[in-house]
């Protein structure tokens, strides 16, 4: 089994970005969602993107965002991938993909097997579906919460489209998560932080090492 691709999400500083690049992560995630402690203003996203250019692929993360906001960020930060982490339906995902001509990843909340089956409705609309833990009712954010779901729901999963695993991953559990699910991509945010929105460079390095330790 090949090692999974790795996305470090919610980078907010040049030091964290450099740590992700040094650890050979495949993707750097920039969160554009004001309620998040990882939210980046346009100028900050553009500055990180300029530093990242050609060194790591950039994923811009949006939550039920207006197309005009996505357009602003795509223009300022030349994203490689657009990640939609809200309640976007397959038609909305397909429209964003057509509008920007970039790969679109759709995050989907999982707490039971049905959630995984339902995610398959994004085949043909999204380029990848990202399984993340379902947030509790009333949560202020739909992701980046450090919550794990039952990985055995994905054991032996035969997917109709590319997929990735997120939700409560950390250096301590990512090797086990990959062993159980055989995820082709893993995505982490709070598990490599010392405080919400503050990435820890040593944890980024450890996470990448453990994700490949299969
Ligand atoms: O990270 C955020 O602040 C965030 C805010 C709103 C929607 C999604 C968000 N993060 C999405 C990610 O890609 C995370 O990596 C994923 O949800 C897993 O987060 P975590 O459980 O903290 O590793």
Automatic annotation (TrEMBL):
EC numbers for this chain: 5.3.1.24
UniProt GO MF annotations: phosphoribosylanthranilate isomerase activity
Family to which this protein belongs: Belongs to the TrpF family.
Protein name: N-(5'-phosphoribosyl)anthranilate isomerase
Source superkingdom: Bacteria
Record-annotated N-(5'phosphoribosyl) anthranilate isomerase (PRAI) domain positions: 6-208
Source organism: Novosphingobium fuchskuhlense
Keywords: Amino-acid biosynthesis, Aromatic amino acid biosynthesis, Isomerase, Tryptophan biosynthesis
One Pfam family per UniProt: PRAI
GO biological process, one term: L-tryptophan biosynthetic process
HAMAP family: PRAI
Catalytic activity: N-(5-phospho-beta-D-ribosyl)anthranilate = 1-(2-carboxyphenylamino)-1-deoxy-D-ribulose 5-phosphate
PANTHER family: N-(5'-PHOSPHORIBOSYL)ANTHRANILATE ISOMERASE
Pathway terms, separated by semicolons: Amino-acid biosynthesis; L-tryptophan biosynthesis; L-tryptophan from chorismate: step 3/5
């Amino acid at each position: 089994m090949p090692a999974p691709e790795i996305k470090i999400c919610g980078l907010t500083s040049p030091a964290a970005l450099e740590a992700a690049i040094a650890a050979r992560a495949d993707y750097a995630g920039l969160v554009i969602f004001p309620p998040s402690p990882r939210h980046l203003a346009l100028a900050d996203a553009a500055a990180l993107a300029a530093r990242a250019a050609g060194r790591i692929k950039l994923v811009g993360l949006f939550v039920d965002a207006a197309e005009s906001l996505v357009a602003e960020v795509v223009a300022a930060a030349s994203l490689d991938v657009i990640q939609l982490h809200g309640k976007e339906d397959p038609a909305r995902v397909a429209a964003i993909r057509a509008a920007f001509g970039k790969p679109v990843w759709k995050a989907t909340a999982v707490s039971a097997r049905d959630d995984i089956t339902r995610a398959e409705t994004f085949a043909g609309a999204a380029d990848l579906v990202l399984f993340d833990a379902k947030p509790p009712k009333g949560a202020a954010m739909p992701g980046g919460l450090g919550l794990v779901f039952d990985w055995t729901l994905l054991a032996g999963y035969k997917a109709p489209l590319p997929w990735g695993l997120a939700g409560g991953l950390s250096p301590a559990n990512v090797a086990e998560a990959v062993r159980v699910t055989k995820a082709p991509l893993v995505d982490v945010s709070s598990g490599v932080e010392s405080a919400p929105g503050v990435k820890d460079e040593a944890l980024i390095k450890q996470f990448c090492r453990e994700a490949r330790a299969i």
